[in-house]
Specification:
This protein has 139 residues and is mainly alpha-helical. The protein contains 8 helices and 3 strands. Helix 4 packs across helix 8 (125-136) and helix 5 packs antiparallel against helix 6. It is an enzyme of class 3 (hydrolase).
């Protein structure tokens, strides 16, 4: 006779509880969701891909609220989405000089402003690659 999955699920939901942000369980293991032990179990490739798709959707939803983003070609939109994924929406909005350059379609200036940032110093090659794509429009 197969296990009653619905019964188990209801018990686990009640006993484990749902935590949407990582926390330390009673033995100190980094855990998330309904008791998923991230240190010993981790996540599957399918779960990681699912989360990535959700994160991309969220980044795009935020960026679509910015006129300068909507006026860009898809290659440069991708650069901004990559940057936003890395620094968050609040972080990318802080690139005020980059946004001013983009409003004027000054892609050289936008690329320069990307490189003239704390972010660029932190991520190195990623920043150089994205700035070059912003400058040229070539993926």
């Amino acid at each position: 006779m197969p296990m009653n999955r619905e019964l188990l699920r209801s018990q686990l939901e009640r006993h484990e509880g749902l935590r949407l942000k990582p926390y330390r369980d009673i033995v100190g293991k980094l855990t998330v969701g309904y008791g998923r032990n991230l240190e010993d179990v981790g996540i599957s490739r399918d779960e990681a891909d699912f989360m990535l798709d959700n994160d991309i959707d969220q980044v795009e939803q935020h960026l679509k609220t910015v006129d300068e983003y909507n006026e860009l070609d898809e290659v440069r939109q991708t650069v901004l989405a990559n940057l936003c994924f890395n620094v968050g929406f609040k972080g990318i909005i802080g690139f005020k000089r980059m946004w001013r350059a983009l409003a004027k379609r000054d892609y050289e200036g936008a690329a320069t402003e990307m490189l003239d940032s704390k972010w660029a110093k932190q991520v190195g090659r990623r920043a150089s690659e994205l700035a070059e794509i912003m400058r040229t429009g070539d993926a």
